[in-house]
Amino acid sequence: MSIGLLSSFLVVFHSFIYWLSLRWNGKFPITLTILSVAVAFSFFMYVVGFRELTAGNDTIRYIITFINLDGVFTARDTGEDIFGNTEPLFWPIMAGVKVFADEPEVFIIITSFLSYILSLGAIYLICERLTLNQHHSQIAVFSMAILFSLYEIVYFGNHIRASLAVPLSIIAICLYEKNDHKYWLLLCLATSIHYSALVILLYPLLEICLKQKHGAKYLAGGVGFTFLFINQLVDAAIISTDEYVEGKANIYLNGGLETAIKSIYLMSSTWVILLIAISSILNAGIKKGKITLFFLILVLVTSYFPTISIRFFPFLLLSSVPGFVLFLINNFGVNKGVALVSLNVSLVTYIMFESETVIHTLGL
After folding, report:
1. What is the pLDDT of residues 285-308, one digit of tens each?
2. pTM of the model
């Protein structure tokens, strides 16, 4: 059986388990939930955690850097010299891991395991925000199975640092919503692993804007202005910056990074993610769907720069999937809603896993 067919079959399997949990209305055997978790986790680890060390794109670079780590205190410099990143914590943490297990396979397994567990925590918190009397755990389990049947599994199978920073960032925002000061701790941790997490510093601005009397209008105007003049704003922002920042700007904004992506709107995955995000916001409303709205704005505003915009895809998808599932169920009923999730996601995941790009990226 091809990986595409296997993934499609598993989507149908998880959909059936979730449908049973809804039909049985709380009398759902815990053993079936555990089975669904075990199957979803096993598939994720098979594709991501146990992928070939020679898998395409970034995997081999991570492996080479890990092999060359020779101490916690020199790890950051080693990461900068070989991989090119300057985040302060990721490679020192991995150097600590290497003290106990220096096999590159273990490095991939550990980071994959952590990314899955962190994503489960993030999904649970999102489900908690969106549901009242419904069963958070069962929605979270099903949402995880759907999430890692889509673009997220490809991204996490290539961008190891981001696979940890993305769920940490979502958890941080959920804690901010609860006025929990551990938000700042997780923000620092996520940013120290991958700088893309810095964008969540902007989330409170969305909160402030939406609390104003005409906040929605100001937000729409601000987003529209930024979208129209993003090129000029970016050029102004990098004037008089140091050589490192200017180099990064050239890589991500001015075509210095080799990529086949000319526009995110030419990618089929973009439209899938946008539809999922919009469905989620329609289900939750602006108040409960603020996290999804935040990352949707980031994707759209930075869409002129594909290498930047796609960095926000995994944030957007992770925050959207539970709302997407609930949107279909709340609008079409349990039977049709679950069937629609199953049909659409199984089709998308089959096409995705059969594509040459995904096969190359994940070493399938």
Report:
1. 888 889 999 999 999 888 888 888
2. 0.88
Distance separating alpha carbons of residues 22 and 2, to the nearest angstrom? 31
Q: Which amino acid is at 339?
A: A
* C-alpha–C-alpha distance, residues 107 and 61, integer Å: 13
Q: How confident is the model at residue 236 (pLDDT cuts 50, 70, 90)?
A: very low
2, burial (CB in 10 Å: exposed 0-12, middle 13-18, buried 19+): exposed
Give the residue from 121, 119, 63 showing the smallest Cα distance to 94. 63
Distances, alpha carbon 198 to alpha carbons 169, 186, 189, in Å = 9, 11, 10
Contact 143, 127 (CB under 8 A): yes
**CA distance to 165, 239, 252, per residue, from 362 (Å):** 20, 38, 23
Which of the four pLDDT bands, split at 50, 70 and 90, describes residue 133?
A: low
Percentage helix, strand, coil, to 5, in the chain?
A: 80, 0, 20
